[in-house]
Amino acid sequence: MLIESTLINYSSIATFFTYLYFVFIVITGGIIGLSLVNSIFVNSMVSDNNDELEKKIDDLDSKLNDIIKKRNNHET
For 17-50, how does the pLDDT look when each residue is reduced to its tens digit (9 = 90+)? Predict the structure, then answer.
């Protein structure tokens, strides 16, 4: 491995901290990457659902207004 050939001249403490650094970077990078991907998917799903719900609410509002107008016309 490239890391092992680079660390061959380092002391054991420096080697340990170098390995620790790379493990930390890989783990935190993976967690941050997965969180970012997850937030993007959740955001897109929620926005799609909101658009659908807004359309249904608008349709119900227009139907309700039509019913109220018909009722008012029948009363007069």
Answer: 888 999 999 999 888 888 888 888 887 777 777 7
Decide: 19 and 4 in contact? Cβ < 8 Å.
Answer: no
47 with 55: CB under 8 angstroms? Answer: no
**Is the distance from CB of 3 to CB of 22 less than 8 angstroms?**
yes
Q: Which residues contact 14 (CB under 8 A, 6 or more apart)?
A: 7
> Domain residues of the chain, as ranges?
2-75
Distance spanning both ends of the chain, measured CA to CA = 89
For the chain, how big is the Rg over CA atoms in Å? 30
pTM strictly above 0.70: no
pLDDT of residue 60 exceeding 90: yes
